Amino acid sequence: MKRILVPTDFSEHAEDALKVAAQIAKKNNSEIIVLHMLELPSQMNDAVLGGASIPETMLFMKKANEMLDEVSSRPYLDGIPVTEIVKMDKPIHGISQVSKDYDVDLIIMGSHGSSGIEELLIGSNTEKVVRNSEIPVLVIKKDAANFNASNIVFASDFSDEAKKPFQKLLNFTKFFESKIHLVTICTPNSFKPTHTIEKTMNEFVSEFNLVNYETHIYNDTNIEKGIINFSNSINTDIIGMCTHGRTGFAHFFNGSISEGLVNHAVKPVITFKI
């Protein structure tokens, strides 16, 4: 894990994400890229792109760089290579572009979550990154002074399309020597007999060289609640999920379990795009 990207809006939640990034970077000798997206009013963007000099734009840039300098001087970042970037772009596009340009291995973001009408109509920037990112995204929901990844839940239907994301999870867990809890959530709307689920999970596991793991079947009213309740029952450190990256009407009607977890789970969530 060479490079970790941490987008920041200088909030408390972004600070929580940076603290976790520092712990992971020290463990793996990684570089941290701290990114601030400067989303200017459209008239300013037009002028900037047209080459005009706008004093307000320069002031925004200067202030953002000063704040990044302050963030990068945090004591918990001592000894870690840190690259600072201020980019003028929409957050989702800018984060994606920087991830590609710098060959980022992991994105870590803070989130306070959202609910109700805000979640339905707006969603958070973190949720949108989770939906669109080709790179694994680790979402931190609260301060984690002692970040731990000893126990990780991977919730899935264990179909063929989950194999590639699961391999990415294994690449992440090898840095922490994690125990992996593979779980299928059984609900009234997606009921399958136990022997069918066990067969599917055993066939899935047989394709990987797993040692420290357990398989589980957990019953609940819906998949999202099942994942959260199961994770709480074993006191896991991180919840791992695949995301389909649905957009437009498909996302509106089908929703996304991983995005729901980003909003509602208290524990960190790491997502891998199928």
* Radius of gyration (Å): 20 Å
How many strand segments?
10
Helix/strand/pairing class, anyone?
Answer: alpha/beta
Helix content: 40-55%
Outline, from the CA principal axes?
elongated
Structure description:
This protein is α/β, with parallel strands linked by helices and 274 residues long. It is 43% helix and 21% strand. It has 11 helices and 10 strands. The chain has helices at 12-28, 42-49, 55-72, 91-101, 116-121, 125-132, 163-173, 194-205, 223-233, 248-254, 257-264; strands spanning 3-7, 31-37, 82-87, 106-110, 137-140, 151-155, 179-186, 213-219, 238-243, 269-273. A 10-stranded mixed β-sheet has the order 3-2-1-4-5-10-9-6-7-8, with helices on both faces. Helix 7 links the parallel strand 6 (151-155) and strand 7. The radius of gyration is 20 Å and the shape is elongated. Residues 43-52, 114-123 and 247-255 have low confidence and may be disordered.
Quickly describe the structure.
This protein is 43% helix and 21% strand. It has helices at 12-28, 42-49, 55-72, 91-101, 116-121, 125-132, 163-173, 194-205, 223-233, 248-254, 257-264, and strands at 3-7, 31-37, 82-87, 106-110, 137-140, 151-155, 179-186, 213-219, 238-243, 269-273. It has a 10-stranded mixed β-sheet with strand order 3-2-1-4-5-10-9-6-7-8, with helices on both faces.
